[in-house]
Structures are given as structure tokens and as C-alpha cells.
Write a sequence for this structure.
């Protein structure tokens, strides 16, 4: 090989693959399956006669999700930009289909579709909104930096959030979807004053609702959501009803102490914490693995967010960066809100813990999002500097 050819080969940029992110994702998935079996084995034995019932269903969904993650990863993420508007329309249609015979009810909530497989439209909508708003913000360019542009963009997210809220009665997913959109717009604009004022306004509105519930002006007879605020303010007063799940979760956290009772040794999962494999799985993690184990789980999520930041900062273009920001917003918001609910920091809204809580649709669509992030990261090129070659005499 000639010297010029050798130099061209050395100068060729290397493709980037984030093995750290892959390890974190696979670790969380494996840990989630282990914890799911530990948490659900007793209840699934009673309900289905199979202690591994929930584990098998989640493992199947996880395998499908991993396959889809690698498929999406291999596709250039720019390919999805042409499907931005269809993604918005399909997200809306899937939610509307819940009103048809295809929609079915689980645990008193009609939030799922039976289209040969079970699908939760709210989870699909999260992926759709990430793709749509990443493309939309790039299309309007600097206009998103104006107040009018910000308002118009945020208003585009209202219909999907409203459909999820009023049709599926899923407040937590509606909050997450709008939160994803909000964060994507936030990182696209240099002005923070408007967001600061908006944040103060939202906190003020929430405070007014809490005060009205506390004063008895708004009650659980008017809306079950007001009942959740009542239970949040005084769970002991509703220990046998609305505050039962929250109190039992707090007992689980407290009894775990620093290092926990040991994997599989939880007492609260034996029927005391209802649906512990769903949004309350973090409380059983605290009970079995202690605060140390819970901290290590949260540390893995923090490391995952860090890897997202690295990819977003080095993305090839704005579209790729916004996709990563959308996925980062989804996971970070869901982790923060889940832990806040379990620890009774905010009222119970039924938010699951990513990768760990039971839910086939959730893990499949979440892994599709991770595939999008990997697709963005694969377009990053590492510069290969030319080393000075010595002259042989």
C-alpha cells in the first residue's frame, strides 16, 4: 500500500457505536425481568396457576422489542422524517380506535387495542410525537425561537394529549406526552424566561387545586382524581381505601432499610401492594434490595441519560438531536414521576418504571425509541487524526 493510500485510510472517520448505552439498556431489561418474577410470582400463581406467567409475557415482549430496536437502529433515522405527519395522524387514530370494538378494558380502564396483538395506543403515540415534533421544529427553523412559534408548536401537542386523557382516561401518559413535546421545544429555543413563567403558572394552578381539595371544595365525589389528591395529602385517613396502595408502598420502602431483605424476600408483594408488578415495582425494589439497591437502579438511569446527552450533543443534525432529546425526556420524566408517586411526593397517577414495570406495549415501544437513539449515534463519526510519520534513513 502506497503512503497516500495509507494516509487516506488513517484519515477515514470511524463510525461510532455506544456500547455503554447498549450495556445499560440490556442490564435494565435483565434486571427488570428478574425483579418482575420476584414481584409477581406469588400473585400470578394465585391468579393463573403459573408463577412465571407475567415473566413469560414480558420476556416475549422484550425479545420482540430487542429485535425491533436493532432493525430501527440499522435504518438511517432521516428515513423517518418523511413519515412525520403520518406519525401524528396514526397516533390520533390509534387512540380513537379505543372507542371501537377493538378497544378493551383491563382493571377498569379501557386503554388497550386488540389488533391481533395487544397494543396500548398511548405508548405508540409517544414514539409518534417524538418523530413528528423533531421534524416540525426543524421545518419551522428559527421561528420556534419566537413566542408565537413556541405557543403554536405546543398547541400542536394538545390534541394528542387531550385524546389520551379523555378517551383512555390516562392522565399520566397525557402528562408524559406533553412533557416530551415541551422538552423538545425547550431545548430548541435560547430564551428561558417564557418557560420559567409558564412553570410558575403551572405550579400555581396545581397549588390552587390542592388547596381546594384540602378545603373540601373539590371532593372525590366530583372526580376520582380529587380523591387521589385527598389520599396524597393524608394517606392514613384513607388507609383502607384510596391511600391503601400508597401506604403499603411506603411500608415496603421503610422495611427494606439500607440493604434490603434480600431478593425474593419481600412481604409486601404478598397481596399487600396491589398490582406491585406495575407502577409500584420500585417499592419492592427498595424492600428487597434496600436503599442501596434502589440508588444503584437510579444510577443506571442517570448513566443512560448521560449517554443520551453525549449522543444529542454530537448528533449529525438538529433532527437527530431532537429525537434523542425526545427519548431522553420520555425516560427521565417517567422515572422521576414514578419514584415521586411511590414515595408519595406527588399524588398517585399510575406511572410505570421504564424497562422494569410490567407492560408489553411499553417495553416494545420504548426499545423502538432506543433504536432511534442508536440510529442517531451510528451517524456520528469519530475523527481519526493522522500521526506524524518518521522518515527512515
Amino acid at each position: 500500500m502506497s503512503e497516500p493510500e495509507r494516509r487516506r485510510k488513517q484519515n477515514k472517520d470511524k463510525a461510532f457505536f455506544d456500547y455503554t448505552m447498549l450495556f445499560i439498556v440490556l442490564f435494565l431489561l435483565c434486571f427488570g425481568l428478574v425483579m418482575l418474577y420476584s414481584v409477581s410470582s406469588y400473585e400470578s400463581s394465585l391468579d393463573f396457576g403459573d408463577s412465571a406467567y407475567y415473566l413469560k409475557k414480558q420476556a416475549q415482549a422484550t425479545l420482540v422489542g430487542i429485535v425491533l430496536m436493532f432493525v430501527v437502529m440499522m435504518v438511517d433515522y432521516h428515513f423517518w422524517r418523511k413519515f412525520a405527519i403520518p406519525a401524528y395522524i396514526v397516533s390520533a387514530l390509534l387512540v380513537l380506535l379505543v372507542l371501537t370494538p377493538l378497544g378493551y378494558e383491563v382493571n377498569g380502564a379501557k386503554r388497550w387495542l386488540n389488533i391481533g396483538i395487544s397494543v396500548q395506543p398511548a405508548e405508540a403515540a409517544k414514539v409518534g410525537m417524538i418523530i413528528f415534533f423533531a421534524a416540525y421544529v426543524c421545518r419551522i427553523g428559527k421561528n420556534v425561537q419566537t413566542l408565537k412559534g413556541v405557543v403554536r408548536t405546543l398547541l400542536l401537542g394538545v390534541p394528542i394529549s387531550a385524546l389520551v386523557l379523555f378517551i383512555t382516561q390516562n392522565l399520566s401518559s397525557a402528562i408524559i406526552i406533553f412533557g416530551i413535546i415541551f422538552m423538545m421545544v425547550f431545548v430548541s429555543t435560547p430564551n428561558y424566561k417564557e418557560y420559567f413563567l409558564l412553570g410558575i403558572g403551572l405550579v400555581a394552578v396545581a397549588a390552587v387545586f390542592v388547596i381546594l381539595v384540602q378545603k373540601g371544595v373539590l371532593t372525590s365525589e366530583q372526580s376520582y382524581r380529587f380523591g387521589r389528591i385527598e389520599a396524597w395529602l393524608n394517606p392514613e385517613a384513607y388507609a383502607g381505601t384510596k391511600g391503601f396502595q400508597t401506604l403499603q408502598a411506603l411500608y415496603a420502602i421503610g422495611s427494606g432499610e439500607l440493604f434490603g431483605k434480600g431478593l425474593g424476600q419481600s412481604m409486601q408483594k404478598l397481596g399487600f401492594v396491589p398490582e406491585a408488578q406495575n407502577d409500584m415495582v420500585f417499592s419492592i425494589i427498595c424492600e428487597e434490595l434496600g436503599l442501596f439497591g434502589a440508588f444503584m437502579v437510579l444510577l443506571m438511569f442517570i448513566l443512560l441519560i448521560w449517554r443520551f446527552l453525549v449522543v444529542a450533543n454530537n448528533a449529525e443534525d438538529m433532527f437527530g438531536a431532537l429525537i434523542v432529546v425526545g427519548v431522553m425526556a420520555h425516560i427521565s420524566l417517567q422515572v422521576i414521576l414514578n419514584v415521586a408517586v411511590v414515595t408519595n411526593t406527588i399524588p398517585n397517577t399510575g406511572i410505570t418504571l421504564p424497562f422494569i414495570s410490567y407492560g408489553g406495549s411499553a417495553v416494545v415501544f420504548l426499545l423502538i425509541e432506543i433504536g432511534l437513539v442508536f440510529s442517531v449515534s451510528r451517524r456520528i463519526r469519530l475523527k481519526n487524526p493522522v500521526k506524524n510519520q518518521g522518515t527512515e534513513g
